[in-house]
Design brief:
There is one protein chain. This protein is of the alpha+beta class and 95 residues long. It has a domain of 58 residues. Helix content is 28%, strand content 26%. It is built from two helices and three strands, in the order H-E-E-E-H. It has a three-stranded antiparallel beta sheet. The longest helix has 22 residues. It is globular.
Length: 95
């Protein structure tokens, strides 16, 4: 007999204390090549932008990320109302 679970399965994730605290970012820059998307996350401060993280993913994975983000935005707005889009930062290279 096969047992099926309908809910999401929890996967143990190994991490460091520093990584589990997360990083704050208020700006980002997305670039891509034929084989990957590169997402640079910045902290825009009075001293200029500081790179806080760089994530490199395949185009297929980026598509799944975008879909997951859109699903979560839709659920958030259903619960809390429409999100107002923030004004872009003054540096047009970092959004």
């Amino acid at each position: 007999m096969t047992t099926q679970t309908n809910g999401p399965q929890q996967v143990p994730i190994n991490t460091t204390d520093e990584m589990s605290r997360g990083r704050y970012s208020n700006a980002m820059l997305v670039t891509h090549g034929a084989e990957e998307f590169i997402v640079d996350w910045f902290l825009q401060s009075p001293n200029g932008p500081h790179l806080v993280s760089r994530i490199i993913v395949t185009p297929g994975h980026m598509k799944r990320i975008v879909n997951a983000l859109q699903e979560n935005i839709d659920r958030y707005e259903e619960a809390f109302g429409t999100i107002k889009v923030a004004e872009p930062p003054p540096n047009p290279l970092v959004q």
